[in-house]
Every structure is written in structure tokens, then in C-alpha cells.
């Protein structure tokens, strides 16, 4: 067996391109919500517009996740990522220049379209450029995504105080613009080499997505991803209100608890990809995620006291370790970058479509019952349902293997 190459050897531009792209995919989303009050002070911002901004990310991610394989067949992975990062860059600048709720929504929609494509493209790019270092590179870019989730809310208000909310929103365009440069340089470098230029275009099989619909392995990874997304989106929407109502903590403490929940994605991103690739720990990690989330939810229901609320949030925040788990599974459960494009699209579209409705369901259920018992039990039920799918996702075979075992050649 050939020893894996050092990550940097001959692949510096690919490393930089993937890391900078990962930074843009979450900072573009996480930088807006802390500034809603500042924006509303400058122009009317109806509650419906704020609600659309809150629910749009998973819907856009799912829709553009479905479109990405088709666009990849036309442009290739690298060129489409440049398009996605360019859309994010332009959207962030335009969002900072917004003059009313409509322009803010349109700019945000452009950002989410770019993020939706970028989400799909990173796992197959890792598969293509780092087949010998999938665990290391998934750790690197998922950790960058975790950092860029909890960092923007911490700096958004101070920057707005020092300058204004427009600069605070627009400054993240620097990362997206920087993310395009390594990929542009790679394409320029390869332009004169026909073989290399041909290799730069990864063309997904048009039939692969339809085949994945018939495979339990693909659905299992999608449900694992969707469970993580559900916990994350419900928590970002409702956790501060839940801890205020259940434990009686103050609003500032509730904000700190939400930051703690988001921070738990950082150690998970550092550890999970390596544990999966080196130690085949998918099933163990799935059980840990479900058990931790269930204990956290039980604590919020049965012992919601200020002294313990921090522990319950830490445990609930452990459940989204399923996110880096699903990302690395997309890479290792496909033989080729071409199949990884289709699998990434399928998994993330299924996951985000499933997660998109849960913040609304939780809110409606709370309004109907006047209690958080029902919503928390719904979250617990989803975690329980995810367990057998985590076991299926832990099977050491690719989607091609599963197809060939049932239907013949892939």
C-alpha cells in the first residue's frame, strides 16, 4: 500500500481553496442575526422578512443542492465553486448596501444560493484532491466551518459599534473572494496542459442520483445528516427561549448558552473525521450523539435548574457531531469524486429538506400546548429514530458496492 503523501505536497492551492471556501460557507450565514435590530433601526424590517431569513437557509441549501450535480456536469467542480464563492462575495457586499427589506432578502438569497452549492462541492473536492488524506482534510474544513459559525456572532456587534452594521455584514466577503483565488490559479496553471485541464472537470454520472434513491446506505447518511441539521436549526431558533422558560435564566445568559451550544461543534469537528477514517467509529459515534442529545433533553425536561443547565446544553450540543460524521461518510462511502458529487447532493438535500420544517413545527407545537414538553419530546424522538440509520451508515462499503450487490454493475 502506498504511504499517504503529506497534505501540502503539490496541493497547497487545493488546501487553501478548501479551507477558505469552508470559512465562507458559515460566516455568510452566522453574521446576520446579531445585527437584525441595528438593521431594523435604519429601515422597516417586517417580522415576515425576518422569518424568511431564518427559514431560508436549509430550503436554499436543499434546492441548490439538487441543482449542483447538473451544474457540475457543465462547469466541473472547480469552476462551479468559483461561481458559488463569487455569488457569496457579491451577495455579502449587496447585503451591506441594502436599503430596504426586499434588497436585503434578495442579497441574502444570492448568498444562500452560493452556500448551497459550496456545501455540496467540498466533500467531492476532498475526495478528488486528497483521497489519501480524507480524514485530515475533512477535519480541517469542518473545523473551519465550526469556527466560522461561532466567531461572526461574537464580532458582529463590536464591529457595528466601531463602524456600522453595513461594514460588519460586508467584511466577510473578503474570505469568499480570497477563496476564489487558489482555484482560479489552479485553472490558469492547468490551461496549457490538456490532460490536466481535462482532469480538472469532474463530471458526475447523470444516473447516479436516481440510483442513490434506491439505496438504504444513501438514505441512512441523509437521515444522519438531517438529524444533525434538525438539532442545530431548532436550537439556534429556540434554545434561548427554552432555557429562559425552563430554567428561568436571564436573556444574556441564554445568549451565552447558545454560544456554548455552537462551540461544541469545534471539538467534534477536530475529532470525528479521524475517528471515522482511522478507527471506523461511525456506529459508536452515532450512539454517543444520540445518547448525549437524549440526556441533554431529559435534563431540560426534568432538572431545568440554573446550576445544571450548562451541562444539559453541552450534552445537547454534542448531538450535532453527526454533522462532521456525515461529511466524512460522503467522501468514504463513494469510490470516485463523480459519485461523491451525487451522494453529497442527495444527502444534503434530504437532510436540509427534512430539517427545514422543524423550527416551524416546534414553534407551532409550543404555541398549541403552551409548554416545551412536546417540542423537546419531538427532538428526542428524532434522535432515537436516527440510531438504526447510524448503524446502517456504519457498514464498511460504498454506495457502488451496495448497488452492485443488488442490481449489477454501477
UniProtKB/TrEMBL annotation:
- Cellular localization per UniProt: Cell membrane
A molecular function annotated in GO for this UniProt entry is: transmembrane transporter activity
- Coiled coil ranges (UniProt) are none
Q: Where is the Major facilitator superfamily (MFS) profile domain?
A: 12-398
Give the GO cellular component terms, alphabetically. plasma membrane
Q: Name one Pfam family in it.
A: MFS_1
Q: Which PANTHER family match?
A: 2-NITROIMIDAZOLE TRANSPORTER, PTHR23523
Name listed for the protein in its UniProt record: CP family cyanate transporter-like MFS transporter
Species of origin reads: Microbacterium ginsengiterrae
Amino acid at each position: 500500500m502506498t504511504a499517504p503523501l503529506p497534505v501540502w505536497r503539490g496541493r497547497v492551492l487545493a488546501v487553501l481553496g478548501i479551507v477558505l471556501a469552508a470559512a465562507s460557507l458559515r460566516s455568510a450565514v452566522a453574521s446576520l442575526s446579531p445585527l437584525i435590530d441595528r438593521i431594523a433601526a435604519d429601515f422597516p424590517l417586517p417580522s415576515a422578512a425576518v422569518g424568511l431569513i431564518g427559514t431560508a437557509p436549509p430550503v436554499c441549501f436543499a434546492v441548490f443542492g439538487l441543482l449542483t450535480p447538473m451544474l457540475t456536469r457543465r462547469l466541473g467542480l472547480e469552476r462551479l465553486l468559483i461561481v458559488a464563492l463569487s455569488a457569496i462575495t457579491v451577495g455579502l457586499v449587496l447585503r451591506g448596501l441594502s436599503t430596504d427589506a426586499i434588497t436585503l432578502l434578495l442579497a441574502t438569497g444570492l448568498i444562500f444560493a452560493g452556500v448551497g452549492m459550496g456545501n455540496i462541492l467540498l466533500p467531492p473536492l476532498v475526495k478528488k484532491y486528497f483521497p489519501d488524506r480524507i480524514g485530515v482534510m475533512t477535519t480541517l474544513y469542518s473545523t473551519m466551518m465550526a469556527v466560522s459559525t461561532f466567531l461572526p456572532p461574537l464580532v458582529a456587534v463590536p464591529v457595528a459599534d466601531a463602524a456600522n452594521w453595513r461594514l460588519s455584514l460586508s467584511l466577510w466577503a473578503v474570505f469568499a473572494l480570497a477563496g476564489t483565488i487558489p482555484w482560479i490559479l489552479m485553472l490558469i496553471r492547468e490551461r496549457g496542459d490538456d490532460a490536466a485541464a481535462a482532469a480538472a472537470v469532474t463530471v458526475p454520472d447523470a444516473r447516479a442520483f436516481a440510483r442513490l434513491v434506491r439505496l438504504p446506505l444513501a438514505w441512512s447518511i441523509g437521515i444522519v445528516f438531517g438529524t444533525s441539521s434538525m438539532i442545530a436549526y431548532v436550537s439556534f431558533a429556540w434554545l434561548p427561549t427554552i432555557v429562559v422558560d425552563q430554567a428561568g435564566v436571564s436573556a444574556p445568559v441564554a445568549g451565552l448558552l447558545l454560544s456554548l451550544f455552537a462551540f461544541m461543534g469545534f471539538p467534534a469537528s477536530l475529532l470525528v473525521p479521524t475517528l471515522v477514517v482511522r478507527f471506523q467509529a461511525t456506529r459508536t459515534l452515532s450512539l454517543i450523539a444520540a445518547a448525549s442529545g437524549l440526556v441533554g433533553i431529559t435534563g431540560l425536561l426534568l432538572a431545568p435548574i440554573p446550576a445544571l443547565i450548562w451541562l444539559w446544553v453541552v450534552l445537547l450540543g454534542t448531538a450535532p457531531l453527526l454533522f462532521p460524521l456525515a461529511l466524512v461518510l460522503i467522501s468514504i462511502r463513494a469510490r470516485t469524486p463523480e459519485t461523491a458529487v451525487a451522494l453529497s447532493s442527495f444527502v444534503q438535500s434530504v437532510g436540509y429538506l427534512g430539517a427545514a420544517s422543524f423550527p416551524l413545527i416546534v414553534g407551532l407545537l409550543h404555541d398549541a400546548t403552551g409548554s416545551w414538553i412536546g417540542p423537546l419530546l419531538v427532538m428526542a424522538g428524532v434522535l432515537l429514530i436516527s440510531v438504526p440509520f447510524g448503524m446502517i451508515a456504519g457498514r464498511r462499503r460504498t454506495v457502488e458496492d451496495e448497488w452492485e450487490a443488488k442490481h449489477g454493475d454501477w
